[in-house]
Amino acid sequence: MKLMQIALILCCAVATYNFAVVAAASSFEDNDFAEFEDFDSDDDFVEVPVTVGGGAPAASKEVPVKEKEPVVKAAQIQDDEEDGIVEDEDEFFKDDEEFEGFDAGEIKEETGKKPAEPKLTVAKIPMHFRTHWDSYWMEMLMLAGLMVYFTNFFAGKAKNAKLAQLWLTTHKGLLDDNFVLVGDDGKVENENPGLMKESESLYTLWCSGRTCCEGMLVELKMIKRQDLVSLIAGLMRPQQDQVHIKVDLTRGVMDPFVFCVGTKKTITKAFKEYADLSKYCTLVSKPETRYNVPAGFSVLSEIPEATSAILENRIITALSRYQQYIDYIHISDQYSGPVQVEDANNLKQPETKPVLMAGFNLPKNGDMEAVKPLLILIFYLMERLKGYRLSKEGQQKAEKNRSRVEEEFLKSTHAARAEAAAQRREDKRKAEKERIMAEDDPEKQRRWEAKEQKRQAKKKAPKMKRLAVKSL
């Protein structure tokens, strides 16, 4: 009987245990949050003692128990689901911005094989620095150009200085015989007599202390040998070293006339550039037959008799013998420089002065003795102008020409002069009004205002012309 009770109790206990295990398993499967349940035991398995019959414990049966998981409340999980969405792994690999060239839609899963990885192409970048000299050909070319330029600069500078000094040495004795002071530097004490260097291709020499002239300025204009660009341009347009001489004559020494002789190219250019030549002179046609000048020369003349007196036998001989060196000879008593731009506000004619100017080419071989007679020609012309006098008809023609030029100037500036005169009258009236108003005499001020009103009324009144009618 007791055995039956024990067996019955044992069966009930086993049934109860199995029922509990099944219920626990079903509760884990139905509960979504079962993995977060907290267990008291950390063991993976729990041994359940089983007694058989007389109470002897049977072999223990191991029941698997899940690991303890942290308990998370449902509200917290719901908040996490609302805050962020966890993307699926497949969706992540389909992102085109993250994986370029990787088409996740066409990946086929194969058993035992991984999907092919995208192929990356690495661009070949050339080396920035190289050790070959041909990589620096541009820099070497620039350095070579700079070296050639500076070498030419110093060589051309030295050659121009040498030619200028050679000209001075050759003509120094002749200049000392005709002038008291040669090579004035503008100081009280002439510290550095000789050539004055204006630039690398321009040298000047001032001489003074001679009768019939105030002074003589010599300009040595050399080719710009120090400038490589100018030398290259000279290959297409040849240039020559030149000496320009300008003698400021004393007023009253020469009679009034304007004259110029020189090469055709120079005469054409001078006729357009210089005011005295364009206003007073005309181009002589066929000067070879009229004045016996060499072929290739042109003549600008104001008074024919003065031109014939200047182009005498000695001058014609010098022109023929030194034709290759003579560029121009310009004589004028109305020299005012280049043609000025017309200005309506310019109410005064430019100042004029008598001059003797000449331009000579220097020899290419540097033989300055060959052009020394040309300086003697300048001194001969100075003496010739000092002693020559125009005839009565020539004097009248010269005066007529100068009156004509003055009238043309007055006509061109008539409007400007009228405006200036009106402005002067207005300024005079303003000054008179200020003077009257400053005085403490009301009667005098009243008379002045009445006079001014009368003048204004007369000015505004229409102008009428009076006609004289003869009686029958």
From TrEMBL:
GO terms for biological process: endoplasmic reticulum calcium ion homeostasis. InterPro entries: CCDC47. It is a single-pass type I membrane protein. The chain crosses the membrane at residues 136-155. Residues 456-472 have a biased composition (Basic residues). It is found in: Rough endoplasmic reticulum membrane. Keywords: Membrane, Signal, Transmembrane, Transmembrane helix. Residues 391-472 are annotated as: Disordered. Belongs to the CCDC47 family. This is PAT complex subunit CCDC47. It comes from Musca domestica (House fly). The gene is 101895712.
